[in-house]
Amino acid sequence: MRLYDIIRLGAFCVIRPMEGMIIMTHEERRIWLIKKLLSERIEYRKYQIPDYEKGQKDMLRSLMNVRMPQFISDEFLQVQDEYLQVENAKAGELA
């Protein structure tokens, strides 16, 4: 289920959230997800979130890859879904 509409305006794309979507910028979603994953384990709480996009993306991917299966909130899943949908849309534009 797609939670956004992509509206093309010439060379630009505008992503318009659909009903029920949590309103955050793409960067805010990425940082929110990282903070939630870091807060799950005491040993991760000492890590700093990088200031640059690539470092944040690498950290998020790493945290998602090493996370063991366990309960996670619906809110987390919604924000993760919204974040990954935008990442997939961006990747599709580059292809």
Describe the model.
The chain has 95 residues and is α+β, with helices and mostly antiparallel strands. The protein has one domain (22-94). The protein has 3 helices and 2 strands. It has helices spanning 26-39, 53-66, 74-94; strands at 4-9, 12-17. The chain has a two-stranded antiparallel ribbon with strand order 1-2. A hairpin with a 2-residue loop joins strand 1 (4-9) and strand 2. Helix 1 (26-39) crosses helix 2 (53-66) and helix 1 (26-39) crosses helix 3. The longest helix has 21 residues, at 74-94. The protein is globular and about 40 Å long. The mean pLDDT is 83.
In angstroms, what is the radius of gyration? 14 Å
**SSE succession:** EEHHH
How many strands?
2
The general outline is: globular
Task: Summarize this entry quickly.
The chain has 95 residues and is of the alpha+beta class.
Question: What is the topology?
Answer:
Layout (H helix, E strand, L loop, with lengths): L3 E6 L2 E6 L8 H14 L13 H14 L7 H21 L1
Antiparallel strand pairs: 1-2
Helix pairs in contact: 1-2, 1-3
Q: Key terms for this structure?
A:
95 residues
